């Protein structure tokens, strides 16, 4: 259970509702999301691709675009070097197709997660030289590759960096000083000397904007072929935005909204095949499908094989071949799921052993030498969710330990790791996630220093559920639920609205699902309005909670349909539409629950 915090932002809800033709409740939801001006609300409700920020806001982007246009005109042999996650795959695809559009001789390399590690390496620079490639452009990496880019420049290569990660820094007498790699141009929204209206974009969006600048400088921005290209690439920028867990606000939300609107018309054979093999309907896709269906299939290639297989899928034109490749990706992801479950179980076992000796550490650093390093990040995320603590999972790499970290809202993992960077052979990331390599003998010291320097309090380890408002069930009708669709796409930074109601009577219940992990309840609130409520969370804990409050007998009666008015709870929920046999009805999906206190 979480700590509930009801949002109490104030505004003239009636005026907002009248001006934009929405309900007063929806007007309050917009205010809760920090939207106060007419311009912000209009952009949120009806923003489109024309409202994306000007690429010129990115420092160095005009220089980088000019360098690339000049190199193309000189017949340069260009190599795109991306990364092995969804953002790296999508940004590489966008750059490869875009540079081809401008007439470039271009190929690509995505690093092998195990052999090469994250981002640009000396090995990849030397490989480009061996392949007679004289120009490198990075995407979703490069900002931290100072030595690697210095090596490339010493060898006479042209290098352009496009990235979105935090810029490395060092402490000086005048405060923090950024350390930029010595490339011909460095495009990164996080640069302090930039003027980005919105810095939290992913690597694929940076690549997209870079190509927009190339189109502008070359005088081809209005070329129908170029405009069609940007329409199509917005789909991939949206997939990357969701899968890289960027906040769905400002232009990110517009990008994802436009991506979802356009995906049913994609001409990409590989993307179509991936949608079909997963049984999805391209006309009814959501950010959830990007993050939890499409994204994991793409990520699985970089985890269990080579990410270039996913990029090859997007570049494949033959429909039959694309179908085979998409099936391979899905099969790989199914295998990855099994390995992840096993890894999570092993991590929990290690953590519980340590907890038995005393209290749980503030920062969890778990060494699992036998686990595949490619799934360390997923395991870290699952462990972070279970214990709600900053978590680093380390395993054996080719040269020492390698791993990934996932953080909680109140802990800046990148800054914390930066305070002990001398322990690492390599590290990078941002506030909420990081990747790192270090000698095995440094793991204990890393664990000790992170915990000794951690200032988090016990209160920080209780997740906060932000609740929008109290909502009696009678207001959750079909018209209101359909109006809520105006607030989509939902995801990080634009979460589904959460409502709360007390005095909810549990009338009857059923346990559903192949694994008996879903509860369906008939409930009513204090107004007497009855409806169905679903719960997809930890059903075992929920039943234990009810037993502690009311006794095992009454819980048994609940599932026998005999509970009547015996049990009441307070619940946080989201209303949605349940479609069954062509009929639609409103149901509530419970997010959390607590004792029925006033």
Supply the key terms.
OB fold (Dihydrolipoamide Acetyltransferase, E2P), 5-stranded mixed beta sheet, alpha/beta, 598 residues, inorganic pyrophosphatase (n-terminal core)
Q: Care to describe what's here?
A:
- The chain is of the alpha/beta class and 598 residues long.
- Among the domains are: 51-219, inorganic pyrophosphatase (n-terminal core); 359-461, Diaminopimelate Epimerase, Chain A, domain 1, CATH 3.10.310.30; 465-594, OB fold (Dihydrolipoamide Acetyltransferase, E2P) (Beta Barrel), CATH 2.40.50.460.
- It has 20 helices and 20 strands.
- The chain has helices at residues 13-20, 24-32, 38-46, 61-73, 86-101, 122-130, 146-154, 203-217, 224-243, 251-262, 269-277, 287-304, 308-315, 319-357, 376-387, 413-418, 443-452, 478-484, 539-550, 552-559, and strands at residues 3-6, 77-81, 105-109, 135-139, 158-162, 169-172, 175-178, 185-187, 364-367, 391-397, 400-406, 426-429, 433-438, 464-467, 469-470, 499-512, 518-524, 530-535, 567-580, 583-594.
- Strands 3-2-4-5-8 form a five-stranded parallel beta sheet, sandwiched between helices.
- Helix 1 crosses helix 2, helix 11 (269-277) crosses helix 14 and helix 14 (319-357) packs across helix 15 (376-387).
- The longest helix has 39 residues, at 319-357.
- It starts with a strand and ends with a strand.
- 41% of the residues are buried.
């Amino acid at each position: 259970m979480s700590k509930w915090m009801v949002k109490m932002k104030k505004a003239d809800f009636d005026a907002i509702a009248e001006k934009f033709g929405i309900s007063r409740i929806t007007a309050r939801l917009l205010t809760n999301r920090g939207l106060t001006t007419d311009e912000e609300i209009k952009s949120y409700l009806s923003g489109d691709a024309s409202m994306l920020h000007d690429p010129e806001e990115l420092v160095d982007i005009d220089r980088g675009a000019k360098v690339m246009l000049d190199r193309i005109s000189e017949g340069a042999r260009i190599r795109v070097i991306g990364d092995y996650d969804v953002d790296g795959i999508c940004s590489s695809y966008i750059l490869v197709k875009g540079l081809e559009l401008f007439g470039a001789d271009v190929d690509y390399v995505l690093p092998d997660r195990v052999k090469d590690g994250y981002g640009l390496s000396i090995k990849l620079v030397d490989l480009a030289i061996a392949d007679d490639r004289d120009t490198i452009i990075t995407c979703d990496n490069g900002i931290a590759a100072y030595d690697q880019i210095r090596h490339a420049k010493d060898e006479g290569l042209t290098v352009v960096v496009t990235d979105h990660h935090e810029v490395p820094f060092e402490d000086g007498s005048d405060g923090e000083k950024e350390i930029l790699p010595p490339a011909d141009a460095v495009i990164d929204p996080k640069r302090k000397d930039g003027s980005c209206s919105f810095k939290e974009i992913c690597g694929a969006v940076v690549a997209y904007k870079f190509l927009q600048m190339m189109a502008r400088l070359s005088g081809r921005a209005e070329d129908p072929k170029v405009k069609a290209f940007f329409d199509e690439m917005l789909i991939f920028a949206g997939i990357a935005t969701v899968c890289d867990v960027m906040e769905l606000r400002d232009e990110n939300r517009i990008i994802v909204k436009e991506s979802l609107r356009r995906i049913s018309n994609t001409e990409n054979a590989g993307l179509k095949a991936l949608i079909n093999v997963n049984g999805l309907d391209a006309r009814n896709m959501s950010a959830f499908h990007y993050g939890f269906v499409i994204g994991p299939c793409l990520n699985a290639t970089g985890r269990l094989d080579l990410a270039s297989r996913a990029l090859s899928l997007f570049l494949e034109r033959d429909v039959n071949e694309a179908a085979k490749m998409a099936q391979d990706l899905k099969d790989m992801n199914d295998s990855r799921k099994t390995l992840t479950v096993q890894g999570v179980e092993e991590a929990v076992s290690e953590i519980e052993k340590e907890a038995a000796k005393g209290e749980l550490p503030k920062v969890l650093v778990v060494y699992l030498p036998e686990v595949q390093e490619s799934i360390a990040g997923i395991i870290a995320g699952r462990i972070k969710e279970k214990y709600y603590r900053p978590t680093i999972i380390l395993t054996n790499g080719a040269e020492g330990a390698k791993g990934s970290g996932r953080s909680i809202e109140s802990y800046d993992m990148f800054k914390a790791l930066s305070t002990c960077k001398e322990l690492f052979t390599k590290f990078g990331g941002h506030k909420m996630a990081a990747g790192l390599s270090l000698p095995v003998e440094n793991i204990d010291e890393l664990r000790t220093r992170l915990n000794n320097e951690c200032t988090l309090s016990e209160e920080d380890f209780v997740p906060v559920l932000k609740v929008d408002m109290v909502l009696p069930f009678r207001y959750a009708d079909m018209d209101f639920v359909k109006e809520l669709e105006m607030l989509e796409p939902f995801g990080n930074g634009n979460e589904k609205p959460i409502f709360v109601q007390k005095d909810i009577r549990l009338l009857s219940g059923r346990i559903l699902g192949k694994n008996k992990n879903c509860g369906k309840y008939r409930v009513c609130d204090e107004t007497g309005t009855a409806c169905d409520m679903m719960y997809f969370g930890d059903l075992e804990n929920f039943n234990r909670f009810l037993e502690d409050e009311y006794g095992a007998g009454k819980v048994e009666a609940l599932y026998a349909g005999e509970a009547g008015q015996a049990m009441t709870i307070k619940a946080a929920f989201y209303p949605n539409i349940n479609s069954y046999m062509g009929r639609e009805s409103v149901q509530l999906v419970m997010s959390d629950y607590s004792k029925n206190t006033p």
